[in-house]
Every structure is written in structure tokens, then in C-alpha cells.
């Protein structure tokens, strides 16, 4: 399923308490700065979705009619500190105000901004976004601008590509993972995927092989951290996706299901532990690290889990065994705790977590 542009409509006027709370002095300061220099600024992305669901946003991102050069000039004149200059090549300037960061991105349009009308600028930008629920804008009067029926999709818990799935996916193959990630965060079981979209995803899954490992792991971590990690990953396996994401073609599905069940309704596993559950041996974990560019902590944890998991209930039985791993092999406590959670050893996990790090002296 994909969605073509509709006539611009201010779907609703948002005036809930959450909207009032985001109008902090920092946000008001940014609004006034852009007004001063005659550029429009609107809230975009996750903050809009959250506000429409009456959830307090964690971050607030903006889109603007100003280009990067203009933004940098403006912030220089107003003595606003700018960080993360790498984002500039993507049209994003990040500013730091009162220990808070705000990302502001110039509108993505083909024509020069000065040659475009107000309506066409925002519509053109919306048409370049991945999903309809991400193609909405909110102004500072609380007016919602929705070009692709994203608000209705949000209410109906649908995940739909803007315009057509083929174009959006082939522009950036990472959107395949984002499609599943948003199903995990916005929808409910059973997921009602659009079959034509799944066919396109399966046909072009190999495109993920050209996406950087860092970007892929950033999305995979969010998928594996979601409530529906098991369901999402199994659906992705059906679409032949994992083999292009640093995992393997023939995933260890039963071990993955077991690991997901081990922590259901309990404490969460580190996403890398669920990723490694899909693998069979340490060589596959090494290849995963090479593809995804894991942190040293994630790399070492993945190696530890895959090398030690089969020893649980065989070599490692009681609390003493896990204490000795820590004391004699100098393994991080976090790794041992993660192995116990992964292995569904809840009692041992809490006993080890409460342990003071010393072995009791033997009785004489």
C-alpha cells in the first residue's frame, strides 16, 4: 500500500496539555528567531506523532524554509551554539540551547526555495519522507498539516509508504527496516501488512547490502528492543532480510524464539543478545561485527553469549560457577548477568546481581 498526495488540509487544531508543555522557553526562542529572519519553522517527525497520541515527546525536531547556509548565519548572529556539523550535508543543523539539542532540517525540494510557494514547499518535502505518519507538520498555533492522510493511518495503526513503496524504498533501502520498526511501535498484533508492499520489500531486500552497517544496526537495535521483537524479526526472516543485515541466511530461529520467550514480561535483553540468538557459532558473530561495526562492548558481549550459552546447565550449574567466571576469568559482571537472563535463570540472575563480589571463606 502506498498513498498519493491529497489536497492540503489542516486536519485538526491541537490544543492538548502535551502541546502546551512542549512550548518551552527554548522552543519559543527558536520560533522567535526564525520569525525575526522571516523563515517558517514547523515541528516534524516523532514529536508530531507523539502529540497526536497525547504522549509527551522525548525529542523535538523541526523543518524550516531556511537553507543550511541561512541557518548557520542566523545562529551565528544570535550566538546560538551549533553542534554535530556532519548533519549539514543532509540539510540538518543541530543547535544546543540550555543543555538541550534541537535538530532543524531544511525542506527537501527540487526547486530553489525562493521559487516555490508556501504550499508547494511543504508538500514537496512531505512527498520525500518515507511514511505517511512521518509526513505531517505542526505549526506553533497547533495546526496540523497532513498531505498523505498520515493522521488517519496513525489512528488506524497502519504503516504506509508515501506516494509509492518502490520509489521510497529504492531512494534509501534502510526504509525497509524502518517499515518494520514503525509497525512495532505504532501497530498491534496481528500485524496487518500490505501484501503488495511486502512483495516489493522482498524483491529489493538485497539493497540493504549497500547500506552502512552503522545505519543498519541503529535500526535493528530499535526493532530488537521493541515489545514485538520476536514477531518483527520472524516476519523479516520471511522476507529474506537478515542475510543483508549482518546476520545469516539460515537463522537459528528456534534459539531466537527461546531467547525471546526467556525474557517475555521480565527484564529486557540487550539487543545484541537477541541478534546473536539468531546465529549458530562465533564465526558468524565475528562476521556480524564486521558488517555492523558494533561497539567493543557489544562485540565482546556477543562473543561471550554465543561461546558460553551451551554451557549453561552443563558446566555452569550453581551460583558458585558464575561467581568463578567473574573472579577467575575477569569477565564483566554485566556479561554474566546478561547470560543468566538470556538463559532464563531468573533466580540465579538475582542472586548474582545481589552478590557482593567476594567468595565466602571455606569453613575450617
UniProtKB/TrEMBL annotation:
The keyword Metal-binding applies. Residues 191-241 form the tRNA nucleotidyltransferase/poly(A) polymerase RNA and SrmB- binding domain. One of its GO terms (cellular component) is mitochondrion. Its cofactor is Mg(2+). Keywords: Magnesium, Metal-binding, Nucleotide-binding, Nucleotidyltransferase, RNA-binding, Transferase, tRNA processing. It holds the Pfam family PolyA_pol. One of its GO terms (molecular function) is nucleotidyltransferase activity. Belongs to the tRNA nucleotidyltransferase/poly(A) polymerase family. This is Poly A polymerase head domain-containing protein. It comes from Glossina pallidipes.
